[in-house]
């Protein structure tokens, strides 16, 4: 499941040369003829100076043939209205359904400090399947749409923590009908220029009152390819590990009599062959490459050894068998953090604003009333659910959630010998969701 921090699921956008003027395929270019030999109207010798009056966007959007109003967020510079609030007119926030978000101007990390010192900051707080949070620009009294017309779109953008894309780009009428659309699959964490074209179909009627929309698209991670690949590789690695352990247990003691002490010790601690371990760990690394949440496999292996593997907490063997998986996970996280430059761990919440127990208490309530509810009925999943924080044990939801966690872990421990399969399933339930938010602190209280 993709981790989504709370405070910033954001895209900073700066439109440069955005939604360039449409070009009609096959149309003749306009021709302007000047006859310098033919005198024009006489100009009074007492008329001095020059005046240009901006009427109905005759300059910006007229002589300068732009379709996006306030494309560089510099109208009414330095970017504040008379009452002190950020002024990014005519850009507006659009949300549908129960989705939520906000807009603001940002000058902390500009594309450059001279021509492009400000950008539009879109924060997506909540969005579910079929909903969207986006920004809308009406152009100069509407954006004209013509059949079989290609619009050139370009803009600078960078993403905030927890969001990598995609972005949906569209030209829509006032009723929300999409006249032309495109998408940007991924958004970099640093400023980058993105360019694409939107082409209207030949069947649309000409219209004038349209607007330009960019919105964050919801990726359904329930059927996401990266999550599916992680599950396949993770399940296969766990399956062959269990199979290897069963085969190692079936090896007769007399087979090992001729083996060296080191070989017998390795068999007792690790079990299986070198080739078997290599294949299982390669499958685990493929799961990590598919999605980092596979990092919880070492804990699953330890839970298996202490339940179905009939290991004891006081023995070295269960920990030794989980160690190779832990080493692969640590090596993978170091590689992607140091070599590839991706954050191995999520951004921590601002603990300074809340008590240290706020996050654990919040997760205690969510474990029962949010995650277990989604586990039983997954059709109400939301990509970024907004859940309140909890600060007191006196909250009934917190108390019940804590009791639920302690009870299930106690049942798993008591049943580890009588019913090891049920005990393993209970432990696996908590381990599998631990990378999301229940153990690792995140900016977002919940992530579906």
Tell the overall outline. elongated
Give a quick account of the main beta sheet: strands, pairing sense, barrel closure: 6 strands, antiparallel
Secondary structure tally: strands: 11
| N-to-C CA distance | 7 Å
Helix content percent band = 25-40%
* Structural class by sheet pairing and helices: alpha+beta
What is the name of the CATH class of the largest domain? Answer: Mainly Beta
Chain-averaged pLDDT: 77
Helices, strands, pairings?
Layout: E1 10-14, E2 23-24, E3 92-95, E4 100-106, E5 119-126, E6 133-137, E7 149-159, E8 167-173, E9 178-184, E10 192-199, E11 210-216, H1 225-249, H2 261-269, H3 274-290, H4 297-306, H5 317-339, H6 358-376, H7 396-414, H8 420-438
Antiparallel strand pairs: 1-5, 1-7, 2-7, 3-6, 4-5, 6-11, 7-10, 8-9, 8-11
Helix pairs in contact: 1-3, 3-5, 4-5, 4-8, 6-7, 7-8
Could you provide a short overview of the structure?
With 448 residues, the protein is of the alpha+beta class. It is 31% helix and 16% strand. It has helices at residues 225-249, 261-269, 274-290, 297-306, 317-339, 358-376, 396-414, 420-438; strands spanning 10-14, 23-24, 92-95, 100-106, 119-126, 133-137, 149-159, 167-173, 178-184, 192-199, 210-216.
Record keyword descriptors for this entry.
single chain; 448 residues; Jelly Rolls; 3 domains; six-stranded antiparallel beta sheet; 31% helix; 16% strand; elongated
């Amino acid at each position: 499941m993709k981790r989504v921090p709370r405070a910033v699921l954001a895209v900073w956008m700066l439109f440069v040369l955005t939604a360039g003027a449409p070009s009609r395929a096959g149309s003749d270019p306009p021709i302007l003829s000047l006859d310098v030999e033919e005198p024009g109207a006489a100009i009074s010798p007492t008329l001095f100076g020059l005046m240009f009056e901006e009427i109905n966007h005759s300059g910006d959007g007229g002589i300068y043939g732009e379709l996006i109003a306030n494309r560089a967020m510099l109208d009414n510079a330095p970017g504040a209205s008379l009452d002190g609030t950020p002024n990014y007119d005519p850009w507006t926030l659009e949300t549908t359904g129960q989705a939520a978000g906000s807009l603001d101007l940002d000058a902390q990390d500009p594309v450059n400090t001279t021509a492009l010192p400000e950008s539009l900051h879109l924060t997506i707080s909540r969005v579910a399947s079929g909903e969207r949070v986006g920004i809308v620009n009406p152009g100069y009294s509407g954006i004209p749409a013509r059949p079989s017309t290609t619009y050139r779109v370009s803009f600078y953008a960078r993403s905030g923590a927890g969001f990598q894309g995609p972005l949906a780009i569209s030209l829509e009428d006032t009723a929300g009908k999409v006249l032309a659309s495109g998408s940007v699959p991924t958004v970099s964490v640093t400023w980058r220029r993105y360019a694409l074209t939107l082409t209207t179909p030949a069947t649309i009627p000409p219209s004038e009152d349209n607007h330009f929309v960019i919105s964050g698209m919801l990726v359904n991670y329930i059927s996401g390819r990266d999550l599916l690949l992680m599950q396949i590789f993770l399940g296969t690695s766990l399956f062959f590990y269990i199979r290897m352990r069963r085969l190692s247990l079936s090896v007769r003691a007399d087979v090992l009599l001729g083996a060296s002490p080191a070989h017998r010790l390795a068999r007792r601690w690790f079990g299986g062959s070198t080739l078997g371990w290599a294949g299982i760990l390669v499958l685990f690394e493929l799961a990590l490459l598919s999605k980092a949440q596979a990092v919880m496999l070492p804990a699953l292996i330890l839970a298996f050894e202490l339940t179905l593997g009939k290991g004891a907490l006081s023995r070295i063997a269960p920990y030794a068998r989980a160690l190779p998986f832990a080493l692969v996970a640590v090596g993978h996280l170091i590689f992607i953090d140091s070599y590839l430059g991706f954050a191995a761990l999520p951004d921590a919440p601002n603990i300074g604003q809340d008590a240290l127990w706020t996050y654990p208490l919040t997760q205690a309530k969510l474990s029962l009333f949010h995650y277990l509810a989604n586990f039983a009925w997954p059709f109400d999943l939301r990509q970024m659910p907004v859940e309140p924080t909890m600060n007191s044990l006196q909250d009934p939801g917190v108390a019940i959630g804590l009791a639920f966690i302690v009870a299930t872990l106690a049942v798993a421990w008591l049943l580890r010998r009588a019913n090891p399969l049920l005990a393993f399933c209970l432990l696996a339930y908590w381990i599998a969701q631990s990378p999301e938010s229940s153990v690792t602190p995140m900016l977002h209280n919940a992530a579906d």
